[in-house]
Amino acid sequence: MSDFSIDELVIPATPHAPSWPDFVAVAELRNLVEAEGFGTNELNYSAAELLPGWLNTKYNPKSMFVARVEGTVAARATYETLLDANDDHAWLGVKVLPAWRRCDLGMPLKTANLEYLAQESPGHPSVTTFNAEENRHMLVVNEALGFVPMGSEGAWKRVVPAEK
């Protein structure tokens, strides 16, 4: 697939801003991927609920890139850091709609994030990204970009039997 574009998403100041429809699409993408990963939609938030966190960058600068396929948002990449000049850490995240996975959107999105980081915070020594162990495709992307494992996390669930 080669008919896609990657652009920085202008975070809308209000729901009436021109970039609001893309922000809504990104919120829906986030919710779908989170619900898939956690097995619940209890962590879903509307675009209106997510917007204040994206606008408040006083202590937590962040940006977002979107991959559009034929004009439709298919994936997003986020970049976050802390404002403190002594902070040496950034977090990168990529979420792709199920229909567009394994279509080579992850590498250009993550690369756009890393280029943004190099431009905005030259010499930033530490970057963290998270990846599900079963998502081998993105593990390959991370390894190709120089990321190495730093730990492992597992999800645990206990089903409580219904009372009789």
Characterize the structure shown.
With about 160 residues, this protein is of the alpha+beta class. The chain has one domain: Gcn5-related N-acetyltransferase (GNAT) (Aminopeptidase, 3-Layer(aba) Sandwich), CATH 3.40.630. About 30% of the residues lie in helices and about 20% in strands. It contains four helices and five strands. The protein has a five-stranded mixed beta sheet, with helices on both faces. α1 (about 20-40) packs across α2. The longest helix has 19 residues, at about 20-40. It is globular, with a radius of gyration of 17 Å.
Strands, count:
5
- CATH superfamily placement: Gcn5-related N-acetyltransferase (GNAT)
If you consult CATH, what is the topology?
Aminopeptidase
Main sheet summary:
5 strands, mixed
β-strand amount: 15-25%
Number of helical stretches of at least 4 residues: 4
Low-confidence stretches: none
The share of residues in helices is: 25-40%
Set out the fold topology.
Blueprint: E1 4-8, H1 20-38, H2 47-55, E2 62-69, E3 72-81, E4 89-96, H3 106-120, E5 126-129, H4 136-144
Parallel strand pairs: 4-5
Antiparallel strand pairs: 1-2, 2-3, 3-4
